[in-house]
Amino acid sequence: MNDDQLLRYSRHILLDEIGIEGQQRILASHVLMIGAGGLGSPAALYLACAGIGSITIADADDVDLTNLQRQIAHRLASVGQPKVQSAMRAIAEINPDVRVHPLRQRVDVASLAPLVDAAGVVLDCSDNFATRHAVNAACVAAGRPLVSGAAIGFDGQVSVYDARSGPCYACIFAPDASFEETQCATMGVFAPLVGIIGTLQAAEAIKLIAGIGTSLAGRLQMLDARSMTWSEIRIARQAGCPVCGHLH
Questions:
Q1: Is 125 a catalytic residue?
Q2: Which one from 125, 171, 184, 241 is the annotated catalytic residue?
Q3: In sequence order, what are the beta bridge partners of 55?
Q4: How far is 41 from 39, CA to CA, in rounded Å?
Q5: Helices and strands per DSSP (H, E), number in the chain
């Protein structure tokens, strides 16, 4: 680290659990983020603040005026522009040393394989079950930890799925189950909720990269923002899981 980096990251370095060695791991890391919206915005900004070396951001959407109520990486001037480009500019204003790889595309199983393989940690900040299951399958295949978040209305959830040592996303949410997709456009979403969940995703990713603390693997945290109460359920690997069952 150079002098500027020692100063910029001094508050991390002062933490015994991180220190110089942990911050160097953060600087050398590569994170893949799926989605640059409500969850992806705060997650990307905090990852950039922390000094993540490279962030690949995949999102096919453009910034819409309705996004600005909660998607804090985007600005009024970015309306109509690709979210990945808007997020890249926001990151550059905070920390120009972070290498951002913007991918304006909707990912699928085929396109995810090389992206996940190149990353150390994957953040799922998407808003639909099809993408979440595709990301999970790619993470299981590549042996990468997945930090998954979701938020709608006043309800949020977050967990870490690492099939090498615990359950994957499909152990909890079966790929063939018929979930009713709830969209922000029809249901609405409490603005700070995505900030809370997205920030937690960034925190879990940084912990995994720096090798500190205990991750949320095996635990699903759920937030009811109406009463601001958290509940947690323990989740276990399912031997018959169609995605990770062969690893057990």
A1: no
A2: 184
A3: 31, 100
A4: 6
A5: 10, 8
Tokens of 192: 């700070």
Please answer whether residues 135 and 124 qualify as being in contact, where contact means their C-beta atoms are separated by less than 8 angstroms.
yes
CA distance 42 to 48: 10
> Which helix (DSSP H) or strand (DSSP E) does residue 218 occupy?
none
Assigned token pair, 194:
């995505």
Q: How do the pLDDT tens digits run along the chain, 248 residues long?
A: 899 999 999 999 999 999 999 999 999 999 999 999 999 999 999 999 999 999 999 999 999 999 999 999 999 999 999 999 999 999 999 999 999 999 999 999 899 999 999 999 999 999 999 999 999 999 999 999 999 999 999 999 999 999 999 999 999 998 887 666 666 667 899 999 999 999 999 999 999 999 999 999 999 999 999 999 999 999 999 999 999 988 86
Length of the chain: 248
CA distance 168 to 144: 11
DSSP 61: P
The CA-based diameter of the chain, rounded to the nearest angstrom, is: 54
For residue 82, give the 3-state DSSP assignment. Answer: strand
Residue with tokens 């480009």: 85
Written as six digits, the tokens of 126 are 């998407």
The structural domains of the chain, ordered by start, are 3-247 (3.40.50.720)
**Identity of the amino acid at 29:** S
Query: Where in 162-242 does DSSP place strands (E)?
Result: 219-224, 229-234
Question: Helices 19-27 and 191-210 sit at what angle, rounded to 10 degrees?
Answer: 110
Chain center to CA of 210: 16
